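Before relying on records like the one below, remember that each one covers exactly one chain. Contacts with other chains, cofactors or solvent are not represented anywhere in the record.
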Amino acid sequence: MPRGPRPDRAGRPERKPRDERQQRDPKAARPSREDRPSRPQRDPKAARPSREGRPVRPPRDDRPPEPPLDDGILAKDLDRAARAGLRSLSEGLAEKIARHLVAAGRALDDDPELALAHARYARALAPRIAILREAVGVAAYRAGDYPTALSELRAVRRMTGDPSYLPVLADCERGLGRPERALALVRDPDARRLSPAERVELAIVESGARRDRGEMEAAVVALQGPALRRQETAPWTVRLWYAYAAALADAGRTDEAREWFSAVAAIDDEGETDAEERLAELD
């Protein structure tokens, strides 16, 4: 944008040439430091206000109490994959955490609440380690603390990109009375990345969610597929057959349910299910 004309300098007083200006001695112009008033000297101790009478704030520590550890619980007993997840920690801290993880694993089946206490304490020592978030999530799931399990296992998935806990996440949603959310996890695109055993577990959760919604026939269909028709038994066969028998029973297909409960009882050597009791109820 063009500028307008500059204001006329005619009205301004004429400046004197540099030679005619008053010369100033810099040393003479400055007042002496001796003429300045001196600043009062302050006693640091006397100047500070006393802290007496103020409430003392205790140091903040959100760490949960440490569960006791038996002498027989050793860090070396932690499996190799879990030990690898602790490599970023100092040796002493990693050893302490490893012992609590071993204790959590040993207590998981018989006392999941104790397992959760060990896992929570370990997590508090290094909250950014994925293996510790996973330990808390699994223990919380086994203890029936579904909100905590969801929070921790979602974090593990974000941190690692591993979808293997999709079945557990979906079952937590069922446990919280939200079958619709469970079915949304069943449809997650990452479900295609699951192992055969994990896909079976996800199908079992889907069947249960369908039954929660009163969709009995859909619950039966959710379990049908190559895994159910497999001739050789696998580690997940007992659970799959039992879930299928239960779905048939809930759908009113009693004769078929009896056949499948009988098949489960024949291969359930470790007593993982109550197939024999369910079979007796149908007879």
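Residues 1-22, 44-51 have pLDDT under 50 and may be disordered.
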